[in-house]
């Protein structure tokens, strides 16, 4: 199921409203728990979830950034 465009648009709209978001496909692994909590029937397919709220910029853990490989390490350019 392709829902990437919907999720991307939701993330952009939320950011425009001052909300921080985290898309999470891993939530689907807990589908039974989510179905029970939200009262969802079996005819509904869960594909992703989005956590959102106000960003806690004052916490050191929220300023952690991972290093990313440079393009030359991950891209092979073809002529």
Automatic annotation (TrEMBL):
- Pfam families (alphabetical): Nitroreductase (PF00881)
Residue ranges the record marks as coiled coil: none
In terms of InterPro entries, this protein maps to: Nitroreductase, Nitroreductase-like
The residue ranges of the Nitroreductase domain are 1-54
Q: Which Gene3D superfamilies match?
A: NADH Oxidase
Mind telling me what this protein is named? Nitroreductase domain-containing protein
């Amino acid at each position: 199921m392709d829902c990437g465009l919907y999720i991307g648009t939701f993330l952009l709209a939320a950011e425009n409203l001052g909300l921080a978001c985290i898309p999470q496909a891993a939530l689907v692994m807990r589908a039974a728990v989510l179905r029970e909590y939200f009262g969802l029937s079996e005819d509904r397919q869960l594909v992703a979830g989005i956590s959102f709220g106000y960003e806690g910029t004052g916490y050191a853990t929220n300023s952690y950034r991972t290093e990313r490989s440079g393009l030359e390490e991950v891209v092979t350019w073809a002529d």
